[in-house]
Amino acid sequence: MKIGCFVLCYNEERILPHFLKYYYTFCEDVYLLDNNSIDNSVEIAKSDGCKIIKWDNEEINEYKYIEMKNNIYKDYEK
Asked: How big is the CA angle at 8 (ends 40 and 36), to the nearest 5 degrees?
């Protein structure tokens, strides 16, 4: 069985190394959905082998989150 992790990210450089260290213990792939981070989150994720997905969500909209959560993995199934 292969396990992948999809995570939303916006300026999470402080916690991201700890998050990745934990999830890579049991996940084969980590997909970081970057919401236009302006810190080093994307660089940190890339250096740890994450796959980066640009996800632009300029407004807080629960319907968009639900749509994304229910469908994003379908494009990345193995």
From this structure: 50
